[in-house]
Amino acid sequence: MGTMEGSPRSGLSSPEAKLGMRVEDLWDIMEPQLSPTEKLNACFESIPVSAFPPAPSNQAIEIKSDASLGEAVQILAQHKILSAPVVDVDAPEDASWIDRYIGIVEFAGIVFWLLCQSEPPSPRSPSSATALAAATNGVNAEFEFLGPESAASTNGNFFEALTSSDFYKNTKVRDISGSFRWAPFLALQTANSFLTMLLLLSKYKMKSVPVVDLGEGKIENIITQSAVIHMLAECAGLQWFESWGTKRLSELGLPVMTPNRIIKVREDEPVLQAFKLMRKKRIGGIPVIEKGSSRAVGNISLRDVQFLLTAPEIYHDYRSITAKNFLTAVRSYLEKNHENCPLVTGMITCKRDHTVKELIQLLDSEKIHRIYVVDNDGNLEGVITLRDIISKLVHEPRGYFGDFFDGVLPLPQNSRV
To answer: Residue 267: helix, strand or coil by DSSP?
Structure first.
């Protein structure tokens, strides 16, 4: 279990820290009668998103619309990224960004889409062949077989058969564009403000925001929730950050998610039940609860769904893929291959009396997207996500977005932005 000890920063010399100094300069000249929250809003409204440090080179990866699902998964896995913009290969050279891109394809989206077209126990079975043929003709067969016996029927062979099928190899990324979050996706222009970006990543639930260069018609940067948390971690020691970051979680109304509202999965339930719940409830992670208690023994996140396609061989020694067996198998696989992943670290928790600063430093150092709040006995008291933290940093002024979303709608019903 992780602790809340934050490591000291190595000085304010990183691009993120320099950005924090820019906020500090603005903070110092703000009207004294403004509240701290109003000051931060005004500071972030004064800085364009073009000032945000560029994403790592692997986040500049784009996937062509005529790539197969198999090729897309390979690209995402090779570059260790969870999503990438999809470029329309039929768009003219001088196309605007809105015509150049058809959306963002996600690792989890590919897996869920595939599973929704399949039926157990294997894509090679007659019933599954029928489902796959129906899917090819545009008929979606809902993936609803997750009963008590499902863990036994969905073993490694199921996923190996799925990834070796012609359906997986021949279906193009553009063929599943209807499942994309935005079509086309929502992007910011370089002149848009930090405040706009922070609100999209919090209140409007976007995991990442592309920034486009209108002149080039191309994506210039991709800003993620994790990148914002890293920026905040690098700002430790600055007055504006300390005035906010030294507050205890309970002072800011965290956690927002209370114990009775946390979506959970028992350790003996099928791991697919965890992924299905995440998809249905539109959440990014779910705690695995010890059988017969309310103690969390692990966490499964949407990013972990990649192992269903990239490493199905890890399940061969298991008669069933329960949540517990999934955690055990993937941890063993990662350790054997010397790969770093939050699943290897185990369950990381905090207490209500910790500060936002401590929480930010832990989330940043461990590269995780959520942390569970527990009592002294390890029982769950709540969950705090990156989005929750960002939402406590800024607020949306009345009528702020105006017609900003025009042209992006209509959205899929109940779409997770």
So the answer is: coil
DSSP string, 232-260: HHHTTTSHHHHHHHTSBGGGGT--SB-GG
Dihedral sign computed on CA atoms, order 400, 403, 408, 411: positive
DSSP 284: S
**Phi/psi at 48 (5° precision):** -75, 150
CA 78 to chain centre: 18
Distances in Å between the alpha carbon of 195 and those of 38, 102, 138, 248, 268? 11, 26, 40, 23, 43
Query: Which of 331, 256, 251 lies closest to 288 in space, CA to CA?
Result: 331
Buried b / exposed e across 390-417, counting CB within 10 Å, b at 16+? bbbbbbbeeeeeeeeeeeeeeeeeeeeb
Torsion of CA 388, 390, 41, 59, to 10 degrees: -150
Task: Enumerate residues 6+ apart whose C-beta is below 8 A from 227.
Answer: 52, 53, 55
Per residue of the chain (417 residues), give pLDDT as tens: 444 444 344 445 799 999 999 999 999 998 888 898 899 999 999 999 999 999 876 667 899 999 999 899 889 888 888 888 999 999 998 888 888 888 888 887 787 777 676 544 443 333 433 333 333 333 233 333 333 344 445 555 666 677 777 888 899 999 887 666 544 568 899 999 999 999 999 998 888 889 998 887 888 899 999 999 999 999 999 999 999 999 999 999 999 887 888 999 999 998 888 888 887 887 888 999 998 888 888 999 887 877 877 776 666 656 568 899 888 888 888 888 777 666 655 678 999 999 999 999 999 999 889 999 998 888 889 999 999 999 999 999 999 998 887 755 444 343 333
pTM of the model: 0.81
Beta strands in 79-171 (DSSP E): 83-87, 101-106
Output DSSP code: residue 193: B
In sign, the C-alpha dihedral spanning 257, 258, 261, 262 is: positive
Type of residue at 299: N
Tokens (6 digits) for 187: 């992007």
CA gap 98, 191 in Å, rounded: 17
Within 13 A of 347's CA, how many CA atoms are on the CB side? 21
